[in-house]
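Need tokens for this chain, all 299 residues.
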Amino acid sequence: MAERLSFEDEISRNKFKSFLLMIFVFIIIVVLGYIISYAVDPSYFFFIMIFATIFSLLYIVVSYYNSDKIALASVNAKPASQERHRMLFNAVESMSIASGLPMPKVYVMESEQINAFASGRDPQHAVICVTAGALEKLNKQQLEGVIAHEMSHIANFDIRFMTITAVMVGMISIIAQIYLRSLWFSSGNNNSKKNGIFIILGIIAAILAPLVAQLAALAISRKREFTADATGVKFTRYPSGLRSALQAIKNEHVSSKDAHHYSKAVAPLFISDPFKKKFQNLFSTHPDVNERIARLDRM
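Here are the structure tokens for all 299 residues:
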């Protein structure tokens, strides 16, 4: 018989793993900086670091403070109606009380697929959006499980967490691009063997670092989904609602007619990737649904 899982242990374990992955991304920045600083003039690299930091922060801050508006606009979501979507409002109200969070604004988007997402920089500016398909196909318990999962993302400040990750990954990409492009304009006057070795190491690091950082960011995203599942169980006190909803989602596939409702940029926010492939891998934003269901079975 499989060992039972405590949702509290699951939450702590996945948060710790997310933190370790964040440290790993930071180490990539340090190592990349160390190698490039030996390959180029240190003062030149200091300029690169300042530019990369400012550019990444400005870009991400604008997105961060408008994350809810951008996400809702990209899927053409409309405010939910108290009269037409009574079960949805009841589910959000119940999970708001269970989590101790302010009630987020509630939206509905046109799609036959069962799905939902949460966005917003903090609980005071949060929104939850569900598909019309979810409202049609899920029962009360299943819908509460989905809403609990999305409220968990709000409670765990996942938008903020993933924004910090995006800043660091963005910095790595910018640093790598500036270094690689600078090689085209270098005079080539310094041909010492030591410098040549660091130039080669710098090229390798500039090519591999963004890829490795992106893989770490995707791993963080998957850990945050496991954390949200476990926190959702904490809010509802029963895993069967979310488990049953994920079982229904598992058999869903976005149709060609429905695909235009989804933006690929917003896809990572959803409880399940709308464009999910048959097999999950290192490049997936979400963990395998079967593994999520198996973990919920053990809670």
